[in-house]
Automatic annotation (TrEMBL):
Entry-linked Gene3D superfamilies: Glycosidases, Golgi alpha-mannosidase II
Quaternary context: Homohexamer; trimer of dimers.
Protein name per Swiss-Prot or TrEMBL: non-reducing end alpha-L-arabinofuranosidase
Chemical reaction(s) catalysed: Hydrolysis of terminal non-reducing alpha-L-arabinofuranoside residues in alpha-L-arabinosides
């Protein structure tokens, strides 16, 4: 059976710009994300550039990765940056107490991370240590990275082999200060955020965009406390927010509880629908936190940065439980697509987002096989690739009519998600069918501009838990989609069960 949904899109009414930075990524010193993922070392038989794995860089460059957050996560508030500079064989070791309780040798530090960002063509997002660090330590790190003259930290950087300063646009003031970043109360952290932001200085032409560690899920009190700590946000709209410029939000999707999150594979349809309903909760969270922010920030000077999001499943059997290694299936891909739709709809407030994480951890873009050295692109990777046309495009409102719903845990789950954008004479429409069994036809009611061409791609697979492996690299991979036809209102698109489809339009 096929059902029909209508999507009304006014192509001539562009909205807020969808920042490319909502397609950001996250690399923590956790499991095999850094070591064995990004970093293999200069003596590795795996092809690398100065120890950084070449095929990982190539795959992420193909995604046009806009930014990379590092070194954490919880690890950030245990990380002392001076331990990760200088000759590698002289760097002190530390215990990674949050993730597997292993010993970290600090082989991958500041210079290696900045080298990685340059290879990727990505902006660095550095998370500073508020939890166990000091104001002076953070201030020195900013100076070390970004100052050009003969200051003490600039001289230290030169002694370690880097003459020119780096450009560092994004700066995190702690991480999860309500939890692993210090178990602080909102009022305590708000005062610290102002203090740390003050000493995280702009040097030369490098202007920091300071992001204060924000709320966990629905903690509106945390967001309101941070908003009340800003200088007058209702004053001159041209004046930037001070002393920091954004607050963050974290939300993870799972089908179970924190103690038993559900398995990444082998799940049934009930778990599929529970997962989708929880993924769509991101829309509610963005609306609620934005409403609180609007009360204090009518000019929308303050950005909302969702710098940790994605699925979190039980670890794969036989792997270190502290390494958070999980498989990535078609279900994960559709979790990503509905999150990205929500970010597009909230483009006026959501300025950046970072999926957790990039390689070998949680909802990864890439998995690397330690036995064969193979690189696996996950279904989630393909959603990001299919959505590249949304980067820095103007959001278009999508008005859905005739969307069927399914009752999940007492709430109604819409079974179609969509978003759209326009840029440079083109438009991109993203469509997700969350129904496990029913194909759909979506009529694109396209208004305001003439459509002179179209091209579509589809991502789906026979099984809900289909995933890619070193033996089957393309079990879930995008393909050209022939199921698009002219319609009196615009176009008619076939949307198979459990699928993701993008339709690119040429406009005049």
């Amino acid at each position: 059976m096929t059902t029909t949904t209508t999507a009304i899109i006014d192509l001539d009414l562009p909205g807020a710009t969808i920042s490319r930075h909502v397609y950001g990524h996250f690399a923590e010193h956790l499991g095999r994300c850094i070591y064995g993922g990004f970093w293999v070392g200069e003596d590795s038989p795996v092809p690398n550039v100065r120890g950084i794995r070449s095929d990982v860089v190539a795959a992420l460059r193909a995604l046009q990765i806009p930014n990379l957050r590092w070194p954490g996560g919880c690890f950030a508030d245990d990380y002392h940056w001076r331990d990760g500079i200088g000759p590698r064989d002289q760097r002190p070791r530390m215990v990674n107490s949050h993730w597997g309780d292993g010993v970290e040798d600090n082989a991958f530090g500041t210079h290696e991370f900045m080298d990685l960002c340059e290879l990727l063509g990505a902006d660095p997002y550095v998370s500073g240590n508020v939890g166990s660090g000091s104001v002076a330590e953070m201030s020195d790190w900013v100076e070390y990275l970004t100052r050009a003259d003969d200051s003490p930290m600039a001289a230290l950087r030169r002694a370690n082999g880097r003459d020119a300063p780096w450009r560092v646009p994004f700066w995190g003031l702690g991480n999860e200060a309500w939890g692993c970043g210090g178990h602080l109360r909102a009022e305590q952290f708000a005062s610290l955020a102002r203090q740390y932001a003050t000493y995280s200085r702009n040097h030369g032409g490098n202007a920091l965009y300071r992001i204060a560690a924000g709320a966990n899920e629905s903690d509106l009190h945390w967001t309101e406390t941070l908003m009340r700590s800003f200088d007058d946000l209702a004053a001159d709209p041209a004046e930037p927010a001070r002393p920091f410029q954004a607050v963050s939000l974290h939300y993870y999707t799972m089908s179970g509880s924190w103690g038993d999150k559900g398995d990444a594979t082998g799940f049934g349809t009930d778990e599929w629908y529970t997962t989708m309903a929880r993924a769509l909760r991101m829309e509610e969270l963005l609306t609620r936190h934005s409403t609180v922010m609007d009360r204090y920030d009518p000019h929308r000077k303050v950005g909302l940065v969702v710098d940790e999001w994605g699925t979190w499943w039980n670890v794969e059997k036989g792997t270190n439980p502290g390494f958070l290694y999980q498989q990535n299936t078609l279900r994960d891909a559709l979790v990503a697509s509905v999150h990205l739709d929500a970010f597009h709809r909230h483009a006026e407030r959501v300025v950046m987002a970072n999926i957790a994480q990039t390689v070998n951890v949680l909802q990864a873009m890439i998995l690397t096989d330690p036995g064969t050295g193979a690189l696996v692109l996950t279904p989630t990777y393909h959603v990001f690739a299919m959505n590249a046309g949304h980067h820095d495009a103007a959001a278009l409102a999508v008005h859905l009519r005739g969307v069927e719903t399914r009752t999940v845990d007492g709430t109604e789950l819409p079974l179609v998600s969509a978003s759209a954008s326009v840029k440079d004479g083109t438009a991109l429409i993203s469509l997700s069918n969350l129904d496990t069994e029913t194909d759909r036809t979506v009529v694109l009611d396209l208004r305001g501009r003439d459509v002179v061409g179209h091209e579509a791609r589809v991502l789906t697979a026979p099984a809900l838990d289909a995933h890619n492996t070193p033996e089957q690299l393309d079990a879930v991979a995008p393909a050209a989609h022939s199921g698009v036809r002219p319609h009196p209102r615009g176009l008619e698109v076939d949307l198979p069960a459990h699928s993701y489809v993008t339709v690119g339009l040429g406009l005049r």
